[in-house]
Design brief:
With about 260 residues, the protein is mainly alpha-helical. It folds into three domains: about 1-95, Endonuclease III, domain 1, CATH 1.10.340; about 105-180, Endonuclease Iii, domain 2; about 200-255, Arc Repressor Mutant, subunit A, CATH 1.10.10. The chain has 14 helices and three strands. It has a three-stranded antiparallel sheet. β2 (about 245-250) and β3 form a beta hairpin. The longest helix is centred in the middle third of the chain and has 17 residues, at about 140-160.
Length: about 260
């Protein structure tokens, strides 16, 4: 569950050291639940999208309270946990417990789009048609389905990549509809890369970095020094407070959340 939260929109090489440190400090959900949510944000470091740290902490608290500290194996119980959506529930049930569930991340969706549908890229957001296709392709045997889920994800991550697919290494190249059609170019909406420099995300990251490194309340003046533009800086700080990532205190001071 920890790895699935961390790997959302973040590559493995960035996640791995934080993941190892996280599990060394909090090997069980109850260990994390005992800490303040701000400690989860601090340990998240610079992985980005730090609300995931709060959601993971909230899930750990719920697991401790509802399931005796054990991550539930039941898909419906996983889905009922705070911060866990359709993908994460299916991934945990499949990868951790060997169950039969379609696991649709970006890599799997790209493999299915090319191999079955014959297009270069899947839609920007997961569609009902993709979910139907994933269910239809899933092997009936539970353990085989779990291996299929892992294998299709690895195929997309390592071979059928977004920019430089390695068809010569692909075990299903002979059946791939997109390759057999001559690899037609993508005809859907433009695929825009995410920008970071100069965005509110960058400002939020710099503000959080100051708070993570401090072991007590931080004055407004210390936060003001990290970004030159006051309107954007204030907007980013307000957003962090609204998201529960930062707690404002009296006297113009701020800290990571304790509750």
């Amino acid at each position: 569950m920890v790895s699935e939260f961390m790997l959302q929109q973040t590559p493995v090489n960035r996640v791995l050291p934080v993941y190892e440190q996280w599990l060394a400090r909090w090997p069980r959900p109850a260990d994390l639940a005992e800490e303040a949510p701000g400690e989860a944000v601090r340990a998240w470091g610079r992985l980005g999208y730090p609300r995931r740290a709060l959601r993971l902490h909230g899930a750990a608290v719920a697991i401790t309270e509802r399931h005796g500290g054990d991550v539930p194996a039941d898909h419906a119980q996983l889905l009922a946990l705070p911060g866990i959506g359709e993908y994460t529930a299916a991934a945990v049930a499949s990868f951790a417990y060997g169950q039969r569930h379609p696991v649709l991340d970006t890599n799997v969706r790209r493999v299915f789009a090319r191999a079955v549908t014959g297009v270069q890229y899947p839609p920007n957001a997961t569609t009902a048609a993709e979910r139907k296709l994933a269910r239809a392709l899933l092997p009936r045997d539970e353990s085989t389905a779990a291996r299929w889920a892992a294998a299709s994800m690895e195929l997309g991550a390592l071979v059928c990549t977004a920019k430089s697919e390695s068809c010569h290494r692909c075990p299903i190249a002979a059946q791939c509809a997109w390759r057999l059609a001559g690899k037609p170019e993508h005809e859907g909406p433009p695929r825009r890369g995410q920008t970071y420099a100069g965005t509110d995300r960058q400002v939020r990251g710099r503000l959080l970095a100051v708070l993570r490194e401090a072991h007590g309340p931080v004055p407004q003046a210390a936060l003001d020094r990290v970004w030159h533009e006051p309107v954007q800086r204030a907007r980013a700080l307000d957003g962090l407070v609204a998201d529960g990532l930062v707690e404002p205190l009296a006297g113009g001071q701020y800290r990571l959340p304790l509750t």
